[in-house]
Amino acid sequence: MKTFNKVFGFGFLLLSLWSNTGFARIVYVGDGMETITLSYGGPTIIRFPTTVKTISQASRFVIGPADEEQPNYALISVTPRFSQGEDKVTFIMSDGSIINTKLIVVPKAIPEKTDSFYDLKHKDSLIEKADSDDQTGAHVSELELMKAMIRGDHVTGYQVKKLIRTVDTKVDGISCQLVRVYTGSKFNGYIFKISTAAKDKDFLIDVTKLTLGSPNTAILSQIDEEKISANEKEHGHVFLRIVAKPASVYYNVNLPVAVVKKDKEIEG
Q1: CATH fold of 11-129, please?
Q2: What pTM did the predictor assign?
Q3: What tens digit of pLDDT does each residue of 10-39 get?
Q4: Closest to 10 measured CA to CA, from 62, 58, 54
Q5: Residues 169/170/172/173 CA torsion (nearest 10 deg)
Q6: CATH of 141-263, one of 2.60.40, 3.10.490, 1.20.1050, 2.50.20
Q7: Is 145 helix (H, G, I), strand (E, B) or coil?
């Protein structure tokens, strides 16, 4: 077992920031492994449902109370010592419960990472949970977010970024770009543009086999058309939309693509 490592205090300013913004990614924890994404180069603050007693397997992180002057061991700062990768850390709570986490460290510039706060809640609290403040976006279900992404609607409590980030499809002749990200406390939403200029073959995408990371963080997926086809006059493209858990990272998308030659199918 490992007790808290020392970490530089963030003082009253940090706690004020938490209180004033009121925006944290909610993660409901249970018996399984929970994934939390950390940005390299700075601390991520995690609020636990009760006081943390001990921590194991945490040597690759600097972990301690967010405010050293007034320590609150239910409000913890976690700073990675490595720039990219993942590690499993177990938190033992004062009530004897155990929270198992997979901490994934990513570059600070990824578009999903709009904040550095996580609020861990027991899954049992979902039964009692009332609708929260509209500003958190917690009232929006995964299906409602998907519908809004299809229509291009504004979603209360979600930040929307338009951008272009290329994703490796691992298939010749087809390209994929992240073009929009919806970020809220409960879900991330992604819109990808998948394109081809190939004239001699089509591409089929089976979204029922799509995954986003391991374990899979995708919840819902939708695509305009299963087949992407180009012709002599224009390139072919479709839009793929994914609603995922807040710990998801866009570049972990795995597209199940089958290649189909014109008028003749080949193995994909």
Answers
A1: Immunoglobulin-like (2.60.40)
A2: 0.63
A3: 333 343 333 333 457 788 888 889 889 888
A4: 62
A5: 0
A6: 2.60.40
A7: helix
